Amino acid sequence: MAFSVFCVLVPVLAVYSVSATPITMVGTGYEGITVTIDATVPAENCGIILANLEVAASSASQALYHALDGRAHWSSLTVLLPSHWPDSCVPAHIPVPSQGETPDIRVGATHPVYGDTAWTQQSRPCGQQGDFIYLSHRLLLEPRDVGRMLLREWAKYRYGVFDEVGYSGDGVYPSCYHGDLTQDIQINGCSDKPLQHGGECHSGMPLNVSHSVHPDAKSSLLFTTEPDHITSFCNSITHDRFAPTKHNSLCGHRSITEVILNHRDFQDSIGGNTGVNTTPNIVYKRATLTRYVVVIEDTKDMLIRESWSFLRLALRKWAVHDLPSNTEVGLVSANESNAQRLRGLSPLQSPGARDLVASNIPYTPGDTRAPACLSCGIKEAIQMLQDKERMGGPAASIIVVIAPGTSEHAPELEMVIEEASDANMRIATITYPAQLRSRPLDWLANATGGAAYTVNESRYNMAASFLSTYFKLTNVMWNMMETYYQGDVADLPIEIHRRELLDDGRNSVTGSFVLEEWLGEAAKFFIFTHNTENPLIRGVSLVSPSHRVFSTRSDSLLSLKLLSLPANINETGTWTYNIERFSGSPQPHYVQVMATPWTRTAPVVRARLWTSETNNPFILYTEVKRGDWPVLGARVEVTVTRPETNGSGIHREKFELLDTGSGDPDLMKGDGIYSRYFSPSVGGPGVYTFEVTVTDNGNTAYSWQHEMRQPGRNLELSPNCCGSLMPTPSVEPLSPFQRVLPPITVSFNKDVVMNPAVVGRVGDLKAEILPSELKARLSWTAPDMGGTSVTRYEVKYALTIGEILDSFDSATAWTHATPFPLAPGSETSFTIDLTRNPSLLDQTLFVAVRGFKDQSPDAIPGPVSNWVRVLVPSPPPPPPPVPTYPSSPTEDIWPQPDESVIPRIADRLDFNLELILPVIIGIILLALCLTIYCYLCIIRRKKPEKSSQSSSQHPEKPLNVSIVPTTPTSNANISISTPIMNSPTRSEPDTRTMSPQFEPCLIDPDDPKKRYSMAQYNDTHMMTREGVVPNSNGHLSVISANHANHHQNGTLVRGRTLSPYQSWTASQLLHEHERRHSPYGQVGEEYLQQEQQYAPPVPPLPSYNQQDIYGNHQQQTVPPPGQFINGYHRNGNLMLFNPSLQGSLSSVSSGDRKKRNVTMV
């Protein structure tokens, strides 16, 4: 477990960095400018292209000399020819082998966005050199003066200035803008004479900048180069420092001339030189050969466990397996006092010659621990290269120095570095196996424009090193070969997949990689293993996209710690591999897949890494492109480690590079260049390693279509591009890919940690006015505060541009709200609500923001952002009140007979159609709703009303009464029950026991006056808790209330017919008496007016048995009663009410009944 943790914490460092192009200035002339012709340029008309290129270079040199008042011109120019161009393209010259020049100007095909206009790729801040200048070869097919156009791009590339012109549709650098000196819109640019526009700024049409300059204007070349009278740059007098140009935003509002004269090329220049020949000397070269001399320190410090054996194997793999045939290699060892030539420069034309290079490296280093004489070894290498050049001609000459560092003060090394630079030789360094001296070797490489690497040995145990040391060292040697290869870059394989296999308990590991569309020639599958005798691998299988299986291993490279599969990997798609490992393997395995492009013009995804010129602030840049087109949406992840001298990792972090175009540090969005700040404030001073991995970000990366469009016959010189954003033409998704770049190392001292540079400027602030809401919405990209996130913002406004830019601290702060801080690269928005401060309405405000990296009150703020103009108008005044009388007594306010009144009303009340129509529609809808409501009410009234069983007017329980007369075979019965007692399971009444003359009648129960009540007997000797208990006599009436032994609940059963006086209760008798003899007259006459009414129930028949009529009686079987509600029958046979037979329905009120005594009857 301890070993596995140690493996995670100990990184193996392989570091790479390349300095800027070694352009030198001798007197007033630049030397070392290199122009390369891309492989995409056809060989047809090559002679015309080169002839016009010479004319353009002479014109640009003359224009540069004039613009800078004789301070500079081009002295020499080197043109690198592509391999497919014949020598006949330059009949007046003989191409010579190149010396490894790095191109400054590229000539290629028409660009999809820039067209045929010359342009410069710039990634670094103001004042630092750009990446390259790009010229369309179609620009050189005909004689034309492109000198000033080339000069404009040279100023951007060499001096780090930017355009002084706006871009159509750009929210940060617009074509036209409103300033604070005038209310009229004006052109965004710089000139020594007023700029004029023909209305394009008002109409929004693209601006023709060449027509907007004054006929007598002389500047500025960064605004336009088309008129012949534009020959100079804007200076401090003619410069408009408040215009929202890209140069003002990125260069602190300094003029072009101020930035140029502050460059290191003109520190001691005074200008005014005359009589200088400005025509450059042009030399044509062709990349043919690379010569390497490897200088190795031969001391005891080179031996740390397996570090020396790993070095021997890495050099053998590099010389025998990796280097192309157009390479020559020599070996030199340096001890504490002198240097020894191990192998002279010899070409690698045969396997035997390659083997001799690696075989001459000593098996063990020297015994002394004194620092080696590296100056002696470099001198010997210089001598070897010079001798070879005299015999075999020039070539790219590279001195590779491998040592654990140098002393702090080494004057002898400084002398040999100068000698190497004078001989056009570069020094590439590898600090290995660790930095055991006070200084790494990087400074030797930086002084000569070479590459610098660092590889630290990683300890496994007391005697062994981790395989990762060897794996990183071989990658460093491979990258060095790629950097200095003299030929088409498409000839070399590229790494498309890498994976580290650790012992995680699994015996079988499965993985996959994607062979991209334009790759596949000679693709190779390798497995790095530590043990060459027993690789600890049981089996390997590789499955193609068409399901073809390859499982045959090859041990031909096992001496180099490599296992390979002789598979034909040329099928596009996803390949799957399975590796069976022995569990418990102490060393990791590494899987590596190398593939070669089909052709030299194949659009293959490539990436490269570089840094800013200074380390305070320190910026990382990564360019990701497919061919020449940018890759968008990629994931560029940086892994940062800070190792100690013994190899233990102390600080580790990860972050992603961004392509946001925020201006600090990323200058343009969508150009395929990802960047980010880094600060060592968290990890402290020390040597940091940055390793970058580029992936497709989960199939989200995309690029421009390769076969996008064919250029037309005419030149495309009109595009005015690009400001904060590169437009995106038609795009297509990319296949999954992975690119792991060689790491770089940077040393940060204590001063950098304690005094970091102030960065984190918001460079893309934009404003949107919301007049209806009385608000202004600000938007920007969250800044990168030097490797950390912003913690708070400060929003201020002023009435002039100068006040907000020059006196931001004294400007008025917006205190009603503050923006919410987000992570770097996040889209941020903030709304200024002017209803909080209505006094600012109708005022022209200039707003800017700045961020802070911490919350402390004394925190150092970041730079002030670009300014934006905010003008929120006041809301319109309310309409005038509606007059209540005519404006003139004599005015006729009534319409004519043939005139509608609505237009007159609308005209007087200042109503428009948008207001009148909704009112009319609302009135119609309201009338329709009222009509429907009235109709429903009428329908409801016509419907017969039915009384409810739970009416609040009759809270007493309803009863069901059945009156059954006695027949010879059965006794008459009366049944009294509640609705609850009437179960649905009861059987229907037996009509054979019912007499038709005694059918009950229905009386409306809703009216108390028409209610007919029937009360139960109140005799305690016949009523019990459960009801009337049956008697054995069999002839008396029985009232049963839900007794368990009876099926009819609440039923009055009598054995024979009873008279009303014998069977009715006192209340019933009183009620009937009042109905017949009421002093208030007959009640219920209203019933006579209705068509159908029902009389009260017919009294029960008299009983002939006078014996104990209230006694107990054995219940007889009776039919189920009919249902009554409030004492009135609702079901069964009903009869119409006849007042002549049944009397009046009137009765006294219930209150009067309660006052009467039953004995009054």
Helices and strands, with pairings:
Blueprint: H1 2-9, E1 24-26, E2 29-31, E3 33-37, H2 46-67, E4 73-74, E5 76-81, E6 96-97, E7 105-108, E8 119-121, E9 132-136, H3 147-159, E10 176-178, E11 185-187, H4 200-203, H5 209-212, H6 246-250, H7 256-261, E12 281-286, E13 290-297, H8 307-322, E14 327-334, E15 339-347, H9 351-359, H10 374-392, E16 396-403, H11 411-422, E17 426-431, H12 442-448, E18 452-454, H13 467-483, E19 494-501, E20 508-515, E21 519-528, E22 537-543, E23 549-550, E24 562-564, E25 573-581, E26 589-597, E27 605-611, E28 618-626, E29 629-632, E30 635-643, E31 649-656, E32 673-678, E33 686-695, E34 702-704, E35 731-733, E36 738-740, E37 744-748, H14 750-754, E38 766-770, E39 775-781, E40 792-798, H15 801-806, E41 812-813, E42 827-833, E43 845-852, E44 868-870, H16 901-908, H17 913-942, E45 960-963, E46 973-977, E47 1038-1040, E48 1051-1053, H18 1060-1063, H19 1066-1076, E49 1124-1125, E50 1128-1129, H20 1139-1142, H21 1150-1155
Helix pairs in contact: 2-3, 8-9, 8-13, 10-11
Describe this structure in words.
- Residues 945-1010 are annotated as: Disordered.
- One of its GO terms (cellular component) is protein-containing complex.
- With 1161 residues, the protein is an alpha+beta fold.
- Among the domains are: 19-161 and 282-288; 163-244, no CATH class; 289-486, 3-Layer(aba) Sandwich (Rossmann fold); 488-600, Sandwich (Jelly Rolls); 605-706 and 724-754, Sandwich (Immunoglobulin-like); 766-872, Immunoglobulin-like, CATH 2.60.40.10.
- The protein is 19% helix and 23% strand.
- It has 21 helices and 50 strands.
- It has a 7-stranded mixed beta sheet, covered by helices on one side. It has a 6-stranded mixed beta sheet with strand order 15-14-13-16-17-18, with helices on both faces.
- A hairpin with a 5-residue loop joins strand 22 and strand 23 (549-550).
- The longest helix has 30 residues, at 913-942.
- The radius of gyration is 52 Å and the shape is globular.
- Mean pLDDT is 81; it is low at 1-21, 887-893, 945-1055, 1080-1095 and 1101-1161.
